[in-house]
């Protein structure tokens, strides 16, 4: 019973975070309807969902992410089409990312409210829609909110492990962390942190007479994760080699490490705000650790594990970025932010603060959340405008007089469905520096996609365009004129003509 919060005397204060949460939720749906947008990575999601299931898995395997999110989105698309519901392409793409928050609301209104009280459930719901970058990623057709949902559910079973330590809790924990790993790889780091903390708890703080039995359960749970992940391990190995040779993430520095630690609260680029956020993280650790040392009960162990899941994920990502290759990026730790705020939301009512202090905390979270959401909405409006510009650009060249050459299979996947009326599409080729030739550099992924193109001179009556990654300007041959006509999906579009 040491998990239970008694917050009944704070009725109106307990309702306040719920009121603010639903205001943000209404705003979230308004932005979803009014300002559909396409972030760069969403173009990839849109492209692969136009493939059949087998090709989708094959193309995903050649990317840097696991497949579960794409499969979820694919099933949602098939369901909507089967029932005949009409949705725009962008709304169809983005809605699955909203589903995790709706499930989190249900969990908050049921399980969290029953076990911890209305105040904890309300603070958690408020934090997970307004803080960090949650608001934006509920509207982006990517896997981050699903990884967060799976990890939060897994973390809920950590509580059952601490209380009951039964095989059912361990197995359910294993299943959900594996689902998270099939959704985003960074959740594996968080899972490792949680396993380490559970191991420390067993070795040094739990009753020693059951040590062998406890270690056996932990080992079986970890082995179950590995067994469930075996089908994807060869692909993961291949993708790690890709990341080693070519990836966009910058090197880690002290400044961006501070930003990642502050990411649990805000997305502000202001260094003073980031510093205060990091100080809050340090103060939170001191408070949780001191309380744990004082009681060593299940509740304080649970909260300390939740805190460590966030900080430990950043630490392991930082370490891997130094030893291996830069892999630490803000949105990759979004799932760990969700766990952090579950721990914070449980802790706040346990502080036994008076009404004024509780009200101040809720107002502070609401104000920081409003600042984040305001900033994110402005960015969304900018991306919405960019989507309109890209659509206009593509509409001008999407006709039978056009030939498109893609520098990579990735750009083909991102944009080929928006250029579905062109005469021909070629992917996986580049130009030599001496004379105008298209050299094959890729591998066939799907049978209907790739073929070796003829030279430009064989298409005198066609307009030929090259989509080239925007940070890598090609050296065009002397006999080719290249006119930059715009950018779309991280690509510069050149119109090519022979001189």
Structural class estimated from helices and strands: alpha/beta
Largest beta-sheet details: 5 strands, mixed
The number of E-state strands comes to 7
Percentage of residues in helical conformation: 55-70%
Task: Please tally the helical runs, counting DSSP H or I stretches of 4 or more residues.
Answer: 18
Helix-strand topology string: HHHHHHHHHHHHHHHHHEHEEEEEE
Provide the β-strand percentage band: 5-15%
State the oligomer.
single chain
List low-confidence stretches. 430-452
Shape: globular
The averaged pLDDT comes out at 86
Account of the 3D structure:
The protein is an alpha/beta fold and 499 residues long. Helices cover 64% and strands 8% of the residues. It has helices spanning 11-34, 40-48, 53-61, 68-83, 89-116, 118-130, 134-137, 144-163, 167-181, 186-205, 211-229, 233-245, 254-262, 271-295, 298-323, 334-350, 355-397, 409-415, and strands spanning 402-406, 424-427, 429-431, 438-440, 463-469, 480-488, 491-498. A hairpin with a 2-residue loop joins β6 and β7 (491-498). α1 runs parallel beside α6, α8 crosses α16 and α15 packs antiparallel against α16. The longest helix is centred in the last third of the chain and has 43 residues, at 355-397. The N and C termini lie far apart (81 Å). Mean pLDDT is 86; it is low at 430-452.
């Amino acid at each position: 019973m040491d998990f239970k919060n008694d917050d009944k005397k704070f009725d109106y204060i307990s309702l306040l975070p719920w009121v603010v949460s639903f205001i943000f939720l209404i705003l979230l749906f308004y932005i979803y309807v009014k300002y559909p947008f396409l972030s760069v990575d969403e173009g990839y999601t849109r492209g692969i969902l136009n493939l059949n299931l087998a090709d989708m898995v094959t193309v995903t395997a050649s990317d840097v992410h696991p497949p579960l999110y794409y499969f979820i989105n694919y099933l949602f698309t098939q369901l909507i089409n089967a029932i005949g519901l009409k949705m725009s392409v962008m709304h169809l793409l983005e809605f699955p990312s909203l589903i995790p928050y709706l499930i989190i609301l249900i969990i908050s209104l049921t399980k969290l409210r029953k076990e911890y009280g209305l105040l904890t459930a309300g603070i958690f719901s408020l934090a997970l829609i307004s803080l960090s970058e949650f608001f934006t990623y509920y509207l982006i057709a990517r896997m981050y909110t699903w990884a967060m949902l799976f990890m939060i559910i897994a973390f809920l079973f950590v509580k059952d492990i601490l209380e009951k330590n039964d095989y059912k809790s361990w197995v359910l924990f294993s299943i959900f962390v594996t689902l998270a790993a099939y959704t985003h790889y960074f959740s594996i780091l968080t899972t490792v942190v949680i396993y380490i903390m559970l191991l420390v708890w067993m070795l040094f703080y739990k009753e020693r007479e059951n040590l062998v039995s406890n270690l056996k359960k932990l080992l079986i749970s970890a082995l179950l994760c590995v067994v469930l992940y075996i089908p994807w391990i060869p692909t993961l190995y291949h993708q790690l080699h890709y990341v080693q040779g070519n990836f966009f993430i910058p090197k880690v520095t002290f400044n961006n490490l501070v930003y990642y630690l502050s990411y649990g609260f805000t997305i502000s680029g202001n260094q003073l705000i980031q510093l205060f956020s990091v100080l809050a993280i340090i103060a939170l650790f001191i408070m949780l650790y001191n309380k744990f040392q004082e009681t060593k009960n299940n509740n304080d162990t649970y909260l300390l594990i939740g805190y460590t899941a966030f900080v430990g994920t950043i630490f392991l990502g930082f370490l891997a970025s130094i030893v291996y290759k830069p892999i630490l990026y803000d949105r990759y730790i979004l799932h760990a932010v969700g766990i952090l705020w579950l721990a914070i939301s449980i802790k706040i009512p346990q502080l036994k603060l008076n009404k004024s202090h509780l009200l101040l905390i809720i107002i502070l979270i609401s104000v920081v959340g409003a600042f984040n959401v305001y900033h994110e909405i402005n960015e969304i409006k900018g991306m919405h405008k960019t989507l309109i510009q890209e659509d206009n650009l593509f509409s001008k060249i999407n006709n039978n007089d056009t030939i498109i050459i893609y520098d990579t299979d990735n750009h083909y996947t991102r944009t080929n469905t928006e250029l579905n009326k062109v005469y021909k599409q070629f992917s996986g080729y580049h130009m030599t520096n001496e004379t105008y030739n298209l050299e094959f550099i890729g591998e066939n992924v799907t049978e209907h996609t790739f073929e070796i193109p003829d030279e430009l001179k064989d298409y005198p009556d066609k307009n030929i365009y090259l989509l080239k990654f925007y940070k890598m300007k090609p050296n065009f041959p002397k006999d080719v004129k290249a006119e930059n006509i715009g950018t779309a999906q991280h690509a510069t579009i050149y119109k090519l003509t022979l001189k």
